[in-house]
Design goal:
This protein has 183 residues and is of the alpha/beta class. The chain has one domain: Flavodoxin domain (Rossmann fold). Helix content is 40%, strand content 18%. It contains 5 helices and 6 strands, in the order βαβαβαβαββα. Strands 1, 2, 3, 4, 5 and 6 form a 6-stranded parallel β-sheet that branches. Strand 1, helix 1 and strand 2 form a beta-alpha-beta unit. Helix 1 packs across helix 5. The two termini are 20 Å apart.
């Protein structure tokens, strides 16, 4: 089983910290799970222009291939202007929807206000529904107050939610692997 963590931004550092923390928790408790981090900051991804995804080259093709090779996901985004990042939306547009079908998604987000957690409920979960993906019941939302000045997560409640999310996605993925695959 391969878990892909996606840091869905090309700016900032906090969301990558949260995604990495979830991946660390999964690996600590499930050493058999293969872990990979996709940090969009590290790639020069083209804008989706509606063409067949197989025709993209370079970093865009690499990113599509990385996402396509995963069995389940931790997807993270900072919240900008009350929405997910354009980089993450572009990634969702580039990857064929069938790639996500019947796969587990767990969500994490960071934001400047406590109300921005609603972006997970009102934007990310509907996108997952469109893809016909399975969504972990819990999610992790962090505010800037949950970090130390060195960008370390210091809030105990957030750390507990990270542990819970890491357990949920693995539990769901293992349960789905036991069941016959849907078509």
């Amino acid at each position: 089983m391969k878990l892909l963590g996606i840091s869905g931004t090309i700016t900032g550092a906090k969301i990558k910290v949260v995604v990495e923390k979830v991946l660390e928790e999964v690996k600590k408790n499930n050493p058999d799970v293969e872990i990979e981090l996709l940090d969009l900051k590290q790639y020069d991804v083209q804008f989706c222009d509606g063409r067949d995804p197989a025709t993209y080259t370079g970093d865009t093709k690499k990113v599509i291939d990385i996402v396509s090779s995963a069995d389940f996901y931790i997807i993270g985004t900072p919240i900008f202007q009350g929405s997910i990042t354009g980089a993450l939306k572009n990634l969702f547009d580039l990857v064929p929807p069938k790639v996500f079908r019947n796969k587990v998604m767990g969500f994490v987000a960071t934001g400047g206000t406590y109300q921005h957690y609603l972006v997970i409920e009102n934007q990310l979960k509907p996108i997952a529904s469109y893809f016909r993906a399975f969504v972990a019941p819990g999610f992790v939302y962090t505010n800037y107050d949950h970090f130390s000045p060195k960008n370390e997560l210091v809030d105990q409640d957030v750390l507990e939610r990270i542990t819970q999310l890491s357990q949920e996605v693995v539990l769901m993925q293992k349960a789905l692997k036991k069941e016959p695959q849907f078509s």
